[in-house]
Write a structure and sequence with these properties.
The protein is α/β, with parallel strands linked by helices. The chain contains 8 helices and 6 strands. It has 2 domains: about 130 residues, Rossmann fold; about 80 residues, Transcription Termination Factor Rho, Rna-binding Domain, Chain A, Domain 1 (Orthogonal Bundle). α1 crosses α4, α2 runs antiparallel to α4 and α4 runs parallel beside α6. The site of magnesium ion has 7 residues, from loops. InterPro entries: Enolase-ppase_E1, HAD-like_sf, HAD-SF_hydro_IA, HAD_sf.
């Protein structure tokens, strides 16, 4: 019996277009201003993390300006790199707080999440977006503040989404048997990794997503929890 629903964000609760056509352009537009703020501790930490990642991956030592160039290029390439995701969360914060951006949700998502919670299920999020960015999206969503619904938020600090060890780490953090956790995502490789860790899986087939070997659902209303 399912006791916990763990959901992906982009392509599952939220359209890919919101991320690619609203969030990423806002980040890229604001990035030149943040180059001027590279001494802020939270920005400096992500520059240093970018420098460490480039050194590890390419054996190259880069300065802070070059780190910003990498972050810009990674955003344009939709690379799910930890320092980029952390900086995006920092940059997006102002736009959520001043109402310029509201987190997109597919129409049935908020009500389904509330119904599941009322039925006694626990809810969690696992996304490549940073935990801070996840809380902004659900805290300032089109359906209001949904953050009280969630017991846990996981990002790639727990591991990458296509690796089964990440789901084992999540299962241990949640403290329920793996078969009582249902993971929802639009990406079959993520579902395969979750299944390998013993989780149940559901493939969200939002417009533009192709079916796979995993049980598919056009939207959250189709997911029956007994
Ligand atoms: C919650 S932050 C906005 C989405 C984002 O940047 C991202 O990388 C989402 O990836 P997901 O793992 O939710 O498909
Ligand atoms: Mg996704």
């Amino acid at each position: 019996m399912i006791k916990y629903i763990l959901s992906d964000i982009e392509g599952t609760t939220t359209s890919i277009s919101f991320v690619v056509d609203t969030l990423f352009p806002y980040f890229l537009e604001q990035l030149p201003l943040w180059r001027q703020k590279m001494d802020l501790p939270e920005v400096k930490a992500q520059i240093e993390a970018t420098q460490a990642l480039v050194l590890a991956e390419e054996g190259k030592t880069i300065d802070a300006e070059q780190a910003f160039d990498y972050l810009e290029a990674w955003c344009k390439a939709d690379r799910k790199a930890g320092p980029l995701k952390a900086l995006q969360g920092i940059v997006w914060k102002a736009a959520y707080l001043n109402g310029q951006i509201k987190g997109h949700l597919y129409p049935e998502v908020a009500d389904c999440l509330k119904n599941w919670k009322e039925k006694g299920l626990e809810l969690g999020i696992y996304s490549s977006g940073s935990v801070a960015a996840q809380k902004l999206l659900f805290g300032y969503s089109e359906a209001g503040d949904l953050t009280p619904l969630f017991s846990h938020y996981f990002d790639t600090k727990v591991g990458h989404k296509r690796e089964s060890q990440s789901y084992q780490n999540i299962q241990q953090a949640i403290g329920l048997p793996a078969y009582e956790i249902l993971f929802l995502s639009d990406v079959p490789e993520e579902l395969a990794a979750a299944r390998a860790a013993g989780l149940q899986t559901g493939h969200l087939l939002r417009p533009g997503t192709a079916p796979s070997q995993f049980k598919g659902y056009a939207n959250f209303n189709q997911i029956q929890i007994d």
